[in-house]
Amino acid sequence: MAAQARWTLTALTAALAAAILLAVAAGPAPAGTGPLAKPSHKRTYDGLYERRVSKKNKRWAKRVARCESGGNPNAIGGGGLYRGAFQFMRSTWRTAPRSPGGDPVDYSYKTQAFVAVRLKSRVGGSPWPSCP
Description:
Elements: H1 2-26, H2 42-52, H3 55-69, E1 76-77, E2 82-83, E3 88-89, H4 90-95, H5 109-123
Antiparallel strand pairs: 1-2, 2-3
Helix pairs in contact: 2-5
């Protein structure tokens, strides 16, 4: 019985080692794939930005984004507290109207701008007091 258990343990160890070697040899998975990946919102939000945001609000968004982050959707400021082109706090981003949730820097400029315009329509420009 002990010999059979030892053989089974050896076979399991060898199978696990082979699986790890195969995974390492395959390299990292492409970004946005795997069991924890979120579905892509880019096409949906880019379309909403193009169709539902007025030219006036697009100009406003561009002006505020330039003021807040130089227009960089991946900007992180305030020691990590402010994120994205509009320097959202994560709590503001999560509770903003039509926000996809998560972290703003994970989304395109158009997604961030769409959410910023929706937030502005609800609360005004108060989230961006330094940027008219």
